[in-house]
Amino acid sequence: MADSIYDVIIIGGGVVGAATARELSRYALSICVIEKEEDVCSGTSKANSAIVHAGFDALPGTQKAKFNVMGNAGMEALSQELSFEFRRNGSLVLCFSDEDMPRLGELYRRGLQNGVPDLRILTGKEARKKEPNLTDDVVAALYAPTGGIVCPFGLTIALAENAADNGVEFRFHTQAREIRKTENGYLVVTDSGDFQTRYVVNAAGVYADVLHNMVSARKLHITPRKGDYILLDKEAGGHVASTIFQLPGKYGKGVLVTPTVHGNLLLGPTATDVADKEDTATTAKELAQVLEKSAVSVKNIPYRLTITSFSGVRAHEDGDDFVIGEAPDAPGFFDAAGIESPGLSSAPAIGAYLAEQIAKRAGAKRNAAFHPQRRGFVKLAEKSPEERALLIRENPLYGVIVCRCMQISEGEIVDAIRRTLGARSLDGIKRRVHQGMGRCQAGFCTPKAMEILSRETGIPMEKICKNRDGSEMLSKMN
Fold first, then answer.
1. What is d(CA 210, CA 214) in angstroms, rounded to the nearest whole number?
2. End-to-end Cα, the chain, rounded Å
3. What is the pLDDT, as a whole number, of residue 373?
4. How is residue 235 annotated by DSSP?
5. What confidence score (pLDDT) does residue 131 get?
6. 91: exposed, middle or buried (C-beta count within 10 Å: 0-12, 13-18, 19+)?
7. What average pLDDT does this structure show over 298-327?
8. Per-residue confidence at 445, pLDDT binned at 50, 70, 90?
9. What φ, ψ does residue 169 adopt, rounded to 5°?
10. Structural domain that includes position 392
């Protein structure tokens, strides 16, 4: 017997799961997101290039092409509605030899077929005029002004918060172990109880093949593809204005150089197929590749300003395309599998598509109480002196700076904890208000952040985790 019954269970609290939840909350349905970690945005969605791709790379007619272009077109309006950081900074794909010009031309024609607007091929001179730090080896570049950058944490958290405010339930520390077909849908067996549901959305990232194969004879196979990144301090953030790609190869778009919406400079990723779906360890070899390959595109990168490195794992399905929609031999089971690049760009469009399909199947009515807006975070560092003074008068905690690198106040951290789906770990705070993301990488502000988190939640200090269970920051003395 099931412990809980829902119309829709969404497995996975990444950007696709959150987008689907938010779009489904437009309908009068009972919806639950189950996530094995302590927070949303804890897998692939937290460790990627933070790029909103224009849509010229995917082969015409593929799911990647369709949802990329749709997601890109709607991102600006969505960012205004949900108050997350997004900017159209444009992108350049660099060509380094006359022999490769046909490949650049093919990318241009592919973009036109996909419906990407305003594409142009620039000469090397034109490209360097736009981006003076490009290397002298650049002979031409494909320019896509609709390319953009986004905060992947901000996007995912905004979608999830708005979904929760519109009635979606989120259950963390809840891992799907088994899915069984039943007379009325599916039984989702988890380590925190069993859930009966009419419909399942499989948005489980690198584990999506495992769940799909439990209910379908048409098997999927996902290879975890690891990528290492290097992040530079804000002092390096203006080294390029556009996102700089190289002509794509067998394993994707290669190493890029891009500013971030937070003002840093990001380099990467590498592409290494791994056996372990949880392998997010950086290696000296791969980080050396990032340094070497980024220097091919952009000169004088101030590598001495590196503040951290990290790795993410994306889900590469053998068919080399997104697997989106209802499994043919498993009615009511909807896949969002193989979501690798351009998955972040495509997520809002994927969520809208899946929600429409499920609502149609369910005969669901519109949720008359749906509210599309979401309150953003206070960003003290971006306020004028007068605005800061007003905030501090209203709440003195905004006058207590905890994170000196990022100028994050205690008031902002408290908001991150108290709001809808509030933070319950140090990484949860970091992803919401960027405490600990600066030059010292939380070296000075961690103890105070832990004290605030413990005070606000009642979690004992020795139980405060960096992220998942087992990442406690302190050990209790006997």
1. 7
2. 43
3. 98
4. G
5. 98
6. buried
7. 98
8. very high
9. -90, 140
10. 380-463
Task: Write the single-letter amino acid at 392.
Answer: I
pLDDT cut 70: percent of the chain above it: 98
Of the pLDDT bands very low, low, confident and very high (cuts 50, 70, 90), residue 254 is confident
Q: Catalytic residue at 53?
A: yes
Out of 53, 239, 262, 434, pick the active-site residue: 53
271 and 417 share one domain:
no
Determine if residue 101 is left, alpha or beta; phi over 0 gives left, psi from -120 to 50 gives alpha, anything else beta: alpha
Q: How far apart are CA 49 and CA 252, in angstroms?
A: 12
The DSSP bridge partners found for residue 273 are: 225
* Contact (Cβ atoms closer than 8 angstroms) between residue 348 and residue 339: no
Residue 368 lies in a domain: no
Amino acid identity at 38: E
Instruction: Tell me: do 232 and 309 sit in the same domain.
Output: yes
In terms of domains, do 296 and 387 share one?
no
**Residue carrying the six token digits 């080294």:** 239
pLDDT of residue 222: 98
Q: Is the pLDDT of residue 477 over 90?
A: no
> Which among 238, 69, 236 is positioned nearest to 147, based on CA atoms?
69
Look up residue 139 and give its two tokens. Answer: 């002979």
Is the confidence at residue 250, as pLDDT, over 70? no
Tell me how long the chain is: 478
Looking at the fold, whether 142 and 230 belong to one and the same domain comes out as yes
Residue 254 DSSP SS3:
coil
Number of domain units in the chain: 2
Mean pLDDT of the chain: 96
- Cβ neighbors of 419 (< 8 A, separation 6 or more) are 161, 375
| C-alpha dihedral sign at 68, 74, 78, 80 | positive
What phi, psi does 187 have (nearest 5°)?
-105, 120
Per-residue confidence (pLDDT) for residue 2, from 0 to 100: 75
Does residue 371 contact residue 165 with C-beta atoms inside 8 Å? yes
Residue 194, SS3 per DSSP: strand
CB 38 within 8 A of CB 28: no
Per-residue DSSP letter, 371: -
Q: What is the predicted pLDDT for the residue at 330?
A: 98
